[in-house]
Amino acid sequence: MRIGLYPGTFDPVTLGHVDIIERAMALVDRLVIGVAINRDKGPLFSLEERVAMVEAECKGIAAKAGGEIVVHPFENLLIDCARDVGAGIIIRGLRAVADFEYEFQMVGMNRALDASIETVFLMADARRQAIASKLVKEIARLGGDVSKFVTPPVVAALIGKQR
Question: Which of 1, 15, 17, 128 has the fewest CB atoms within 10 Å distance of its CB?
């Protein structure tokens, strides 16, 4: 069974994330969505809220793709999380050259820690390249319309956080 790990903070989950999840399902039998507990980033949503959002967004994707999606919170090293869930592939989305520079360093470190786990990069769909959770949160905080970047349930959750 091919198991892939798609890690991130998903604060909040965006249409860019959903695009990568849908496309990653064509590569693996089981996709583990690793929701990072990253206290340094000071997430807007709690871990429980982020896990619930990702689970809700992924409900129909697995059935449509004929695979399995599991949402898994983690706080350890990414490579250790990959080992914990049995992943042989780490899936990362790339939006721009700046993403590549950071990811290039991460791949090197992860390969030094465990060369048996590969990293696969999926380029963001052209319509989704500008979407970043950080920007979505900022637009929502300032009262802007984020409906082009996230699904209606996530829009509602963002609005709820602004009250």
Answer: 1
